[in-house]
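G.,

No rush on this.
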Amino acid sequence: MAANGQRLYRTQTRRRTRSKNILSKIKNGQITGSGMTRGTQFPMDLLEERDKKARWQGIPLLLRRLHESSHINSDLSKTHSVVKELSSLLSMEAMSFVTEDRKTPQESVSPNTYTFDLFGGVDLFVEILMRPTLSIQGSVPIMSDDLIKDCLSVLYNCCICTEGVTKSLAARDDFVMFLFTLMSNKKTFLQTATLIEDIMGVRKEVIRLEDIPNLGSLVQSFNQQQLANFCRILSVTISEPDMGVDDKHTLLARNAQQKINASPSRAESNQVALLNIPGFIERLCKLATRKVSEASGTSALLQELEDWHSWLDNALVLDALMQMAIEEAEQSSTESSDEGSLSSSPLRHTLPQSMKIVHEIMYKVEVLYVLCVLLMGRQRNQVHRMLAEYRLIPGLNNLFDKLIWRRQPSSHTLHRQNQNCDCSPEISFKIQFLRLLQSFSDHHENKYLLLNGQELNELSAISLKANIPEVEALVNTDRNLVCDGKKGLLTRLISVMKKEPVDSSFRFWQARAVESFLRGATSYADQIFLLKRGLLEHILFCIIDSGCKSRDVLQSYFDLLGELMKFNIDAFKRFNKYVNTDEKFQMFLSQINSSLVDSNMLVRCIVLSLDRFEGQAEDIKVVEVLSECRLLSYMSQVENRLSFLFRLINIINVQTLTQENVSCLNTSLVVLMLARWRGKLPFYLGALKEKEYSEKYPGCLLNNFHHLLRFWQHHYLNKDKDSTCLENSSCIPFTYWKETVTVLLSSDRSSLCAIATYIDEAYRDLERDFMEQSAPPHPNASGGL
């Protein structure tokens, strides 16, 4: 008995070893490129023997049969039969992976898909799909649409369940381009689009849209639903790749990268390719603004929408919904007698009634994203003209109450532009809508399209009453392209903004969208228009009284408040009326001081406004506000301005400068430019030197500032847009910015306006290379005033 047991144990061990040997040989062949690279290369009897014991579910045998039945001129019906068998073995694993929301593919939870890939299934299916295009023979059997769909579905299931499959497919440029040709077939479009979307998400290099065969005619052949789905793919091709870790986002790294990539990037070239397709932007505008028919009560639909949002984050379910919508449209248009087929579909019984609405919302999210990216590109003015012509803004205004902001959604986490978002479709839709408004209004004369005719008249009346000329952009606005109805889009946005819950991160995006309307050359009429709608009081309530703790939301309100109050004496008067106690004022200062990176734009506004008001001593109203306003009185004290200046310089260095904190450098420059204008620059530089010595780190602050100004020259003197923005926002000519920086960087030790004069020889370190590590900020730099 013992001997028999030992023989049985050795036999089982040998079998397991032989099974492992097969897998090892395949893996080794795939790595080295020699020997066995596919399971189909092994003898049939060996595969049969090992199949049951290894629990391969017959997959290697099926692949062997498929390989033998899928040659040129073979019977494709037999090929399709085997494909169906394989598909049934893999589809359940894919659906299980999706519904259980697994983040990382694992062999243990997807054994069938893993086996399929290991035995060469993925490569075989790619060959089958592409064989008609690779054959030099004239008469190749035509693959049926159903066979193509099943092959694509199997490949997509493998991408979901097996790590590395998507990347290996993405590395095959020939296959990627081939997939785009399949999109011209309406019956295979969905499966193709879903697979392409997955592949595009992992490619290291953005594809060239111009390389897609007949791109223009392909896009023009899409119906509206297909075009919306295609936008999911386009969003990857027209966006600049995320630079990754934080140090790659520094301005130093970005400038170095721009030198390497001097020519237009692929993303920029792809944007141009899209804009050259006739009717493309017009169709996107129609998609973004088309209305949705609601079949049942709003509250019930919205509740269902929230319940189902986790499913809708997955492309499989969304594509299934899309297919159902297409079939439903086809049935209603043809009035087919075969009405039982759709009603008997499991989807019809599984999906709630609100899916059509969610489906439309998902379309609009993708479309708005594409439009937003195009608005931020080099062809911005061309895109603006098209969006105005095709009445995008009036169309969105008509959807605002019924679809975009029909209720206050549940709370959610704030996501920045490049962060992945797991929000529900409704939340994603709102965020993308607000991003679009921000991009549309920012520094562009078309911002007045956000108003209706009556509101434009109100702006004209404000200018007339103040005895100031109307803004040229307002005069030039085509009133046939502005919003319809009783309220324009900007006014509607302010209304919902004031009703937003205290802890809602929508406040961030709303404030950004409204701020963009004010950015650029300061317009008194625009400010008064918003002041009359109680915006300043609402912002102050949020900063002082609401208990808001979110730094992102507070930053957006500081920036908005700065634009709203800049150079506007009425705004400062309103501020003083609201902040009418020392307790409130100290709370306001505490919020500013808690993060100067977030609040420095407001500090800049106060400094600039104070300087202008002090030059208007003949205006009784200005003199009165200057004497009464706590905020202006506080900033008029030189020790307070110096305290801000010291901290602004000390919280940044060249290595840590980003698009987020470079404003601190520019705000410190504004303080010194105004000091220079009034002949007080030597006093300020001397005070900075005294501060260094009192803090017992002489030379650290001024050396750091010298490095920052050298970088400023390097960065801004080659950037037309940034320099224009600086000039418009400060009302200080850019030539004066450049002159001041040049004076500060002078090497003339006899100049009282040169930084070098105030650094003792022993501590001077002015010629350090930008790429060298700067000294860290002093630990006391972030302290209060």
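When you get to it, here's the other one too:
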Amino acid sequence: MITVNPDGKIMIRRCLVTLRPFRLFVLGIGFFTLCFLMTSLGGQFSTRRLGDSPFTIRTEVLGGPESRGVLRKMSDLLELMVKRMDMLARLENSSELHRAASDTHLAADRLSPGAGLMERIQAIAQNVSDIAVKVDQILRHMSEGRQDQCEAPSDPKFPDCPGKVEWMRARWTSDPCYAFFGVDGTECSFLIYLSEVEWFCPPLPWRNQTRAQMAPKPLPRVQSVFRSNLSHLLELMGSGKESLIFMKKRTKRLTSQWATAAQRLARKLGDIQRDQKQILVHIGFLTEESGDVFSPRVLKGGPLGEMVQWADILAALYVLGHSLRVTVSLKELQSNLGVPPGRGNCPLTMPLPFDLIYTDYHGLQQMKQHMGLSFKKYRCRIRVIDTFGTEPAYNHEEYATLHGYRTNWGYWNLNPKQFMTMFPHTPDNSFMGFVSEELNETEKQLIKGGKASNMAVVYGKETSIWKLQGKEKFLAILNKYMEIHGTVYYESQRPPEVPAFVKNHGLLPQPEFQQLLRKAKLFIGFGFPYEGPAPLEAIANGCVFLQSRFSPPHSSLNHEFFRGKPTSREVFSQHPYAENFIGKPHVWTVDYNNSEEFEAAIKAIMKTQVDPYLPYEYTCQGMLERIHAYIQHQDFCAAPGPTLPGAHASQSPFVLAPNATHLEWARNASLAPGAWPPTRSLRAWLAAPGRTCSDACLDHGLICEPSFFPFLNSRDAFLKLQVPCDSTEWEMHHLYPALAQPGQECYLQKEPLLFSCAGASTKYQRLCPCRDFRKGQVALCQGCL
């Protein structure tokens, strides 16, 4: 800003513009002319800086009103030139500008030494005015030339470009991020943004394409090495929240078990090369923006299952040797992703620096809100920790909306395998899991010798769980045979919901709770919470787990807890994994409303001797093995699903099994490149009407494998099963491929995201892909490592 005060002082404040050398020269013409004049008039010239504020040029003229009037006119001209320089800062160097500079000389050089003072002042002022006019003409000429090149093109390769330009004209001020990327309301700035920041318009031919297309070189790949010291991980996890304190204590307590598991897995894998991945772990449910309802309840008996799982995920990724960043706030997330300032409508300011992102539904929503178009570009790298799972019918936005499957948690259009569950209850998702503490042989023998045959511990730390109607009846029966213990949280007085005959220890720290389990014979559930880690911990410590059978099964149709969750799964007991994958003698599932059945189970349990038992997939080694396999083989950013090799060849890769009940991958057929699990493990059955593919595969001791659906999605598969198709149609339906009943109509799947092991109808016999699995590791096939 340039001003002339009434007392004759001219103030020039710094112009915050980045100018190239020539532009500085042009602006300097007027400035140094002014300085020359000041000294000619006997004036004083000085500069002063106040802290970090723009500097001030202070001149004081010792002349009369006439001189001050001329100087005021010159300051106006200089102010005009500063504005011109601001416009020039946005343009490239021009030969015309260089010619303008070469034609301009300091006024003092063109004046004879004998000229009068006022003539010299007028000549200098005229010269500055001529410069301003010349610059204005050049700017106008260049602007008109560029305007011809900044019209929205009609390019069939970029059909959305005209519409996006129209949107930018009307809405570019709606988010500050557009201005951050250089949008200023001109057509050129719209097209530059839409072609170089986003990708809706073709590149402008006059732009420096080398600069626009430059991408940072990828970092050289580093081989990951197993880690046994977790001290740096504890630092990465942060502090300040009770939830984080709980997670760090758990990780520290299990350090030796993680180290031992790493050594065992390293020997098992041998010389397999493993690239170190750059991984962001964003725990969305712990952010203040999501409400963080868990942290305040950690010390009050609140649910700990999610924090147990996240602690173990962090430990497993770190022990496997990958590079981690951990965030539990929105601000940290934005900083690590490179989110530009604004409301989240623009892409990231840089390519995503992470190979993988582990988050939850809260974090997924936060990323979608703040990553702009980059979310769609990079969502294939995201893994969503999802306790109860997300079925394909709920995940596909269009299908869910049209067929009534839309909920508050679904419709993300991810590959269903990107959702990772706490238990392996839906093969459509990936089983992530957690770990339970593993006992050595000495500890197991000590536990067996120290068990009290008549001691029971109730599964339930919150008072609300003890409000179950009818509990008095079966607790009275249990009290006849066993001493009942509880670990219900309370502050000052005993909760009235807990019967007087129950010995309540209050909320116990994890080590003390483990000691209680090691003494107890029975761990009994009241029907809630569903599928938590505690029953596995009890079984690992030598307890029998007794739970209620649900009739009818609980689901989103009849139970508030499941309402709104993106799954149609029916739960037949409090802990289906314990019932189906462990079972007797460690797990007993009975009808609590049948007093005779309940009492008979108690008597039988008291006579039953069990050893501590922990499924391999819930040990540290089992979890490391599983996550290693996922990181090595799951790639959801690759081209869409596997296709049949030689699909148009006469030789099909399938053969009918010798007993003519199912299809197998032919031994002489080539394996599908890039397919994981390997196609050699594929077995295909036609399910009975009304059976899900998950159940149909389990009936044969196998696991449904949704990644194999594309290989079966053909008329040829039905023919090889000796099922003639009177007609074949392609439709979008989560039960396809299937054979319609009655009749012989074969339906094939039109939308790959809807291939699903879940779902059944009495109208259809579903064509189901199954595979084998490793003992104690249901997530992996025999050849998956």
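The chain has a mean pLDDT of 84. Residues 117-148 form the longest helix (32 residues).

Enjoy the weekend,
O.
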